[in-house]
Design a protein that fits this description.
alpha+beta, two-stranded antiparallel sheet, 7 helices, 5-stranded antiparallel sheet, globular
Amino acid sequence: MNWKSERILEALDACAEEFTFPVLDNGYVYLAATKMSVYRSDEDWAIVIEVFGFSPRSGDPDVQIYTFSSKLHDRDPSSNYVTEEAYKNYLNSNAYNESRFIYPISNNEWQDEEEMEYVKLGAKCILRESEIIIPEHAAFQYAGIELEEENPLIFEFCRLIAAKYKDQVLCTEAERRVSVSPELELVLQLDDWRHPDVSGDELPSSSEAFKLIAEMLETGNTQVYTPTEKQNTHWENWPEAGTL
């Protein structure tokens, strides 16, 4: 591969400095679940990070798909931009990163009509094609989710379904590959890893996990990913997430 590990880390660091790299304690998004997928060919690489959570400002739980790659696929067309110069600025500013959103919950009748940050106990939520009934308080306690108020909040329900139905709240393989060039092959997939504290000025190049992934991408040797640092992507490790 023409890309050395140092150059891969430089690309990730540049994204972190522009805040286009996942910030797990994002004050506007209550974190619920994450996944990272790593793709490679003899010439190119891609890293996809999925973040499922809830932003009260958007109103709907979503998965943000962050893609970082030497060869991004299916980029926005120039017709989406007011001018050709605006399109060129988009490409120049996002040379190695792309972001997309999906919404795994297809109805909103489970949300309280008067207090939109609350769920309605006993209501039905449609997650993908499955009906899920909002459970009683005991289910939250069993999952280790301490309710902040008497009735569950939407972000607490997101954390509950992420614990019980993680594969359904996160992406299908087609969804996560939306910006990944088709010839790249999946070489690593992680539900948990040591993520840098981007809002605390940590960069991907300071993370053992991303150093090992960059080395793996350069060499093609999947055995090099043997991290020793404690994993931290569970929402309990980012208590400031969503609190703004």
